[in-house]
Each structure stands twice: as structure tokens, then as C-alpha cells.
């Protein structure tokens, strides 16, 4: 990986080049001893691509590298099916010295969704944990500082991690928001039983607040957005911010878990009811031993009521909750509409600042179209004033 790593180092400021040289040499030496044919091919292709890009990192970097690999293989009369291009970038990222990553918050100017922005992708928010579960990415407007931040927590039934960025990323940055996408341990991963997800997300939130000036964001203007399982987690973070039993995770605890706003798209809010009060035609298994909810709780929810309640936003409803927008489709056959309806009613009863938007004709797939503007308008009101 010498050519690619060297290109990345040379793209850094001069003082950063010196501090990374020894780590770079160590990484290259370690890699050369066990480099596979694919590694060598990746090295040549990445080096060729970066020499043409002159230090810029385009949105379609993986595809450019894949095409160059295909070209080199074809030139030699061979045929190689690389498969998932994300695996190529993961392989590159895994071999970057941490000292390089630590200098990267200067960030790379790029264009995503037609919008110029700075991006810093796939870096760890917890020291010593370099696995995918503890990574985040950050996107900020191309100029300025002190940006309000939207932290996006992905869905996927607590067991899947999306490969793509949020489709609305460019629209949010264009409005002047910074956006952080944060990973967390999945239920089936080592140590992934709840409250692992809260440990990770609390750690990420504190890391972001502690490094706010470094990332050009305003640590006092942070909002959370999640859909489905992500909606559950952001609702739980917002509702439990003042609850000591969920004040878990690592990082500098002089930074609070408070946020100014939460946007919950169709997230489950009562996990015991989710498993025991299924609706006709519900397409999501929530009760069998191998259901994703059972994996999250380390057993079937019917037998884990105490933990299910601990993991439920409904358990922490109070007037201290931050501004919260709840959006849910009445025809949702994955997460019952009643989960959001009852949560919103409970918040309103406690006089929490809640806005509930039922979508009469929508199902579970609501993170699109006019609903994006609904969410961004909510963050405009709550994070910019």
C-alpha cells in the first residue's frame, strides 16, 4: 500500500507528514510481509488513481479503484471479480496509521449529492477500538465554523448496518448543518446485547462534544435523527438524557448527554409491547428466539420484560425531554403505528415539546421525499434559533 499511503501523507500539512512517517513505514513493512495478490493489485490500482486525482478524494473513489483494477487485470488477459467495492475501501482504511487518521479533521473537500462539503469518513470515536462498530463519519459545509450538528443513527433492526450514506446528506449540508453518521454494536456482534448500543452512542456523543471546536461544530446545538431501530435509539437517548442508569459508555463525563432535538422516524418505543402485542399482518418477527429483538435483549422479550422496559423510550417519558419530532406511517406493517402514537401522547401529557406527524397513506419506508424537508425544517427551528 506504499503508493496510496504516501499519497495520503503528502496531502497532509507539512507538520503532519513528519509525525506520520514512522507509523507509515511500520504499516507498510507489516503489510508487505503478508500482502496477498489482491493487496498488491489494490496498491497498484489505488496508486494509479490517486496520481491522476492529485490528492483529491471524489465520492466515487471505490468505483474508480475497482475500474482501474479491472483495467489492469484485463490488460494482462485475466478476469477478476472484486465484488463489493466497499470492501476495497475498508481494506485501505484498515491499513491507515492512526496518526494519519488523527490529523484528518482538516478533512477532504469533495462533492456529494451535488453539494461541496468537507468530509472525514470511517474514523474511531473510542480510543483503541478500530472496528466498524465504533466508527463514525463527519460531513461539514465547505467553509465556516460553529455549525449545528445532526447526528444520524442508522436503522436495520439492530442487526444490519447500511453501506450507503443518508440520501439527504447533501440537502442538510446545503442548509448549513454538519452531519455525523455514527455506528454502534449490532445485536449479534460481540458484546452487542443491550445496553451496548447506548454505551456506544453515549461515547460517540461525548467524543463529538469534546472535539467540537476541532470539528468546527457547536457542541451546544446537536440534534439526533434515526429511522426504525435508529428512531428507537435516538428517542431513547433523548428521553433518558437525565437518567443516571443509562449514563453509561466511556469518554469525558463532564460533557452531558443532553441534545437540543430528536427526530424519530417510525421507531419502536415500547419493546415489550412490540413483541407481545403484534398487529395483523405484521411483517417483522419480534417474538421468536432468533428475532432481531430477541438478539438485542439476549432472549425473547416476553421473558425479558425488565430489560425490554429499560430499553424502551416509553419508560423515560417526562417533561424534561428535548424537542422531539415523531413521524410514522399509519400503514406501517413493520413497526406498529401505535408505538409512536402512544409515545407522542405520553410526551404531550407530560407537557414535553413534541410534534407528532401521522402519515395516512405511508408504510415503513418514510425516510424520503417531503418527509426529509419535514425533518430538516424541524432542525432549522430547533438548532438554529
From TrEMBL:
InterPro entries: AB_hydrolase_fold, BD-FAE-like_dom, GDXG_lipolytic_enzyme. Residues 1-16 form the signal peptide. Transmembrane segments: none annotated. It comes from the Bacteria. It holds the Pfam family BD-FAE. SUPFAM superfamilies: alpha/beta-Hydrolases. Keywords: Hydrolase, Signal. Residues 137-347 form the BD-FAE-like domain. GO terms for molecular function: hydrolase activity. The keyword S-adenosyl-L-methionine does not apply. This is Alpha/beta hydrolase. The lineage of its organism: Bacteria, Bacillati, Candidatus Melainabacteria, Candidatus Obscuribacterales, Candidatus Obscuribacteraceae.
Amino acid at each position: 500500500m506504499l503508493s496510496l499511503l504516501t499519497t495520503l501523507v503528502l496531502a497532509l500539512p507539512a507538520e503532519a507528514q513528519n509525525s506520520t512517517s514512522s507509523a507509515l513505514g511500520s504499516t507498510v513493512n507489516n503489510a508487505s510481509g503478508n500482502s496477498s495478490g489482491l493487496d498488491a493489485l489494490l496498491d497498484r490500482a489505488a496508486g494509479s488513481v490517486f496520481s491522476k486525482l492529485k490528492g483529491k478524494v471524489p465520492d466515487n473513489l471505490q468505483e474508480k479503484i475497482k475500474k482501474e483494477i479491472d483495467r489492469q487485470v484485463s490488460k494482462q488477459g485475466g478476469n477478476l471479480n472484486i465484488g463489493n467495492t466497499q470492501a476495497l475501501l475498508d481494506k485501505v482504511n484498515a491499513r491507515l496509521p492512526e496518526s494519519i487518521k488523527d490529523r484528518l479533521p482538516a478533512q477532504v473537500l469533495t462533492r456529494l449529492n451535488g453539494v461541496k462539503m468537507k468530509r472525514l469518513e470511517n474514523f474511531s470515536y473510542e480510543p483503541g477500538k478500530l472496528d466498524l462498530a465504533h466508527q463514525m463519519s463527519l460531513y461539514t459545509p465547505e467553509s465556516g465554523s460553529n455549525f449545528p450538528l445532526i447526528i444520524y443513527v442508522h436503522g436495520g433492526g439492530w442487526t444490519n448496518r447500511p453501506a450507503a450514506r443518508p440520501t439527504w446528506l447533501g440537502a442538510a449540508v446545503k442548509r448549513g448543518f454538519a452531519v455525523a453518521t455514527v455506528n454502534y454494536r449490532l445485536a449479534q456482534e460481540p458484546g452487542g446485547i443491550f445496553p451496548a448500543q447506548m454505551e456506544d452512542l453515549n461515547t460517540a456523543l461525548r467524543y463529538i462534544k469534546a472535539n467540537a471546536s476541532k470539528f468546527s461544530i457547536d457542541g451546544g446545538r446537536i440534534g439526533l435523527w434515526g429511522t426504525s431501530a435508529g428512531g428507537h435509539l435516538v428517542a431513547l437517548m433523548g428521553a433518558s438524557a437525565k437518567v443516571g442508569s443509562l449514563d453509561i459508555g466511556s469518554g469525558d463525563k463532564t460533557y452531558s448527554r443532553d441534545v437540543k432535538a430528536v427526530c424519530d422516524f417510525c421507531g419502536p418505543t415500547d419493546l415489550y409491547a412490540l413483541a407481545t402485542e403484534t398487529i395483523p399482518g405484521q411483517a417483522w418477527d419480534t417474538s421468536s428466539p432468533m428475532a432481531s429483538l430477541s438478539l438485542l435483549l439476549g432472549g425473547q422479550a416476553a421473558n425479558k420484560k425488565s430489560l425490554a422496559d429499560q430499553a424502551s423510550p416509553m419508560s423515560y417519558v417526562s417533561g424534561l425531554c428535548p424537542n422531539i419530532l415523531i413521524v410514522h406511517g399509519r400503514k406501517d406493517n413493520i413497526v406498529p403505528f401505535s408505538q409512536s402514537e402512544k409515545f407522542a401522547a405520553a410526551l404531550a401529557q407530560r407537557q414535553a415539546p413534541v410534534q407528532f406527524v401521522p402519515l395516512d397513506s405511508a408504510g415503513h419506508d418514510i425516510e424520503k421525499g417531503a418527509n426529509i424537508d419535514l425533518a430538516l425544517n424541524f432542525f432549522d427551528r430547533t438548532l438554529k434559533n
